[in-house]
Amino acid sequence: NLQVVKLEKPPLPGAGMGRLVTLDDPVSLSDLLSRVKQHLGLNHVRLAMGEGRTVEGSTVRSVALCAGSGASVLKGVAADVYLTGEMSHHDVLDAVAMGTSVISSIQ
With contact defined as beta carbons under 8 Å apart, do 28 and 59 qualify? Predict the structure, then answer.
């Protein structure tokens, strides 16, 4: 079950703006894509699949997210998926090479 809660202030002092979410019930990458698009009200998002991953066959257990350009916040974070507003081409390639899929909401 995935619940999105609006935060008025950072929940933990000094925690920064990125988040690492571990899902109680893993979902397919396809299901995560559908949920992200629905929640953001978008018809399309950009997807770069991690090395060895597939849309239907990959299970997502963890998502690292950051609003805006997330490369500096997410770089090196171990997660199945990075969810961010935008990320440079080379940062996406680095994530993909490490097996992390990248979902970007930039149009």
Answer: yes
pLDDT tens sequence across 14-27? 656 788 899 999 99
Which among 34, 48, 37 has a CA at the least distance from the CA of 101?
48
Residues 95/50, Cβ–Cβ less than 8 Å: yes
Number of H helices, E strands in the chain: 3, 5
Give dist(CA 96, CA 85) in Å, integer.
17
In Å, how far are 37, 53, 58 from 96, measured between CA atoms?
A: 21, 9, 14
From residue 51, how far is each of 35, 60, 98 by CA, in Å? Answer: 22, 14, 7
In whole angstroms, how far apart are CA 54 and each of 7, 29, 95? Answer: 32, 8, 15
- Token pair, residue 98, equals 């490490």
pLDDT band for 92, please (50, 70, 90 cuts). very high
